[in-house]
Specification:
Elements (H helix, E strand, L loop, with lengths): L2 H13 L12 H11 L4 H14 L3 H6 L2 H8 L6 H16 L8 H4 L7 H12 L8 H10 L9 H13 L6 H15 L17 H4 L17 E11 L2 E6 L10 E2 L2 E2 L4 H10 L1 E8 L3 E4 L4 E14 L8 E5 H5 L5 H12 L4
Helix pairs in contact: 1-11, 2-3, 2-8, 9-11
């Protein structure tokens, strides 16, 4: 066993994390759910969601037979909703094609929706004790610093170099401790800012530490201007209820409930009278809310409108009227929930 893995395994057994709710299990389903939730999300934010999700969907069959809307409801607030849709679809695939049993074959695992090479490796390692290589964001940072790998880690050329290094470091035993140790080292010691190099178990062989370049690595993503977009959200209120619309299954916030949107003020009247056949009075502009996605920033101008008459008795498919409290608990995007919470704090008349 190489020096890096030996030191890391010994450190993890004493100083690593051992009390996370998805640890101390070899259930591939529980491990899979945790790994998907942890993609692009920190552990502290995941724990509460994970516990509630597993209580409602304790096994693959339960998840597969649930509606997408309910799955999204239990995911609401975690963001990156395609992860939830992929998880749901993969559960259905496992039920349909694999008799409800999570596949053990590493290549087969990667064919499931939303599971890439690193996530498949984590599941295979933790659930089946297979010798597989992980390379998530934390691990990329550890390896880039330790082996002085220049370049943005998600650049294909740099990523290929990191995969080669990661494969060379694999131990022949103690895979669970090694894999968890890599994750823990990146999450708790070799952090993005203020890394705790003084307690790092592999400090002696870390090239970035030796050359005083820890702060320089990994090389940040090349900067480019993030586009900014604007939209108006219409908060249509009828008595104590507000109207939500289901968004298309693909695209931003796919399958979630949200407020109707227009691009310009002049479009509001046409939307209300022609599509919804509503009569309204007033119109109150609420404070602008900004929300940052991975690739752009969205500025939301909420407009509160009171419905005084609905001219059609037949509601559009994909529309619901809910109390503010019920809407807050529905499968809604984070900005919509923030707007609903502001309504609750400052009720309008």
């Amino acid at each position: 066993m190489n020096n890096f893995s030996t030191r890391l395994i010994a450190w993890q057994k004493i100083h690593g994390r051992h009390d996370l709710p998805w640890q101390d299990t070899t259930d591939p389903y529980a491990i899979w759910v945790s790994e998907i939730m942890l993609q692009q999300t920190q552990v502290a934010a995941v724990i509460g969601y994970y516990s509630k999700f597993m209580q409602r969907f304790p096994d693959i069959a339960t998840l597969a037979h649930a509606t997408q809307e309910e799955v999204l409801q239990y995911w609401s607030g975690l963001g990156y909703y395609s992860r939830a849709r992929n998880l749901h679809h993969a559960a259905q695939t496992i039920v349909d094609m694999y008799n409800g049993e999570f596949p053990h074959d590493f290549d087969t695992i990667q064919t499931l929706s939303g599971i890439g090479r690193s996530t498949a490796a984590a599941i295979a390692s933790f659930a089946f004790n297979q010798v597989q290589t992980i390379l998530d964001g934390n691990v990329k940072r550890v390896l880039a610093r330790h082996f002085l790998v220049e370049g943005w880690p998600s650049n294909p050329r740099v990523e290929k170099q990191l995969w080669i290094i990661a494969e060379e470091l694999l131990p022949e035993q103690d895979m669970v401790d090694y894999t968890q140790g890599l994750m823990d080292l990146g999450a708790t010691v070799c952090t993005r800012s203020k890394p705790k190099c003084g307690v790092c178990p592999v400090q002696q062989t870390c090239k970035a530490y030796q050359m005083d370049r820890v702060k320089d690595l990994p090389t940040p993503r090349p900067r480019k201007t993030i586009p900014e977009k604007n939209t108006m959200m219409l908060i249509l209120q009828r008595g104590d209820e507000i109207m939500l619309e289901k968004r298309p299954s693909s695209g931003i916030w796919g399958g979630l409930w949200s407020f109707p949107e227009v691009e310009k003020q002049e479009e509001i009247e046409g939307l209300l009278t022609q599509k919804y056949q509503f009569s309204t009075h007033g119109g109150q502009a609420l404070p602008t809310l900004s929300h940052t996605f991975t690739h752009f920033k969205l500025h939301i101008q909420p407009q509160l409108l009171q419905i005084i008459k609905i001219h059609s008795q037949v509601g559009e498919a994909g529309q619901i009227w809910l109390s503010v409290d019920d809407a807050i608990g529905a499968a809604v995007p984070t900005p919509v929930r923030k707007l609903l919470m502001s309504l609750k704090r400052e009720p309008t008349v």
